[in-house]
Amino acid sequence: MNQAKPVSIVMIEDDEGHARLIEKNIRRAGVNNEIIPFTNGTDALTYLFGADGSGMVSSGRQLLILLDLNLPDMGGVDILEKVKGNVHTKRSPVVVLTTTDDSREIQRCYDLGANVYITKPVNYEGFANAIRQLGLFFSVMQVPETP
Prior knowledge:
This protein has five helices and five strands, in the order βαβαβαβαβα. By secondary structure, the chain is α/β, with parallel strands linked by helices. The protein is globular, with a radius of gyration of 15 Å.
């Protein structure tokens, strides 16, 4: 019987205070999955797509991406576009975290394939609900059998 790999949470958030708060909320929501934190887009993209940029490194990974839109080195929307545009990462759910509630930006994120959009400061109840909804992703995201 093929055991599904546990989902790792990739958190791309440059504000340390927010990152700690998010992690605390994830734990409070009862999610004990590994959290891999990044404070900028460059390092996160290297992790997600590998040194060669192909994304092959992520082909066997079960990832959920928490993405802040305002990063020091690049826009989160660009990262979202890259993640959803790559065959190896496009099935990974992306939760967008941002301080803006600009409806055009929100729509753009959904158009690009974001699964959930959460406005900071993160309201604990809303966040816990979003994470619980993503718990559904955790249970349905199965690694395909390798023949």
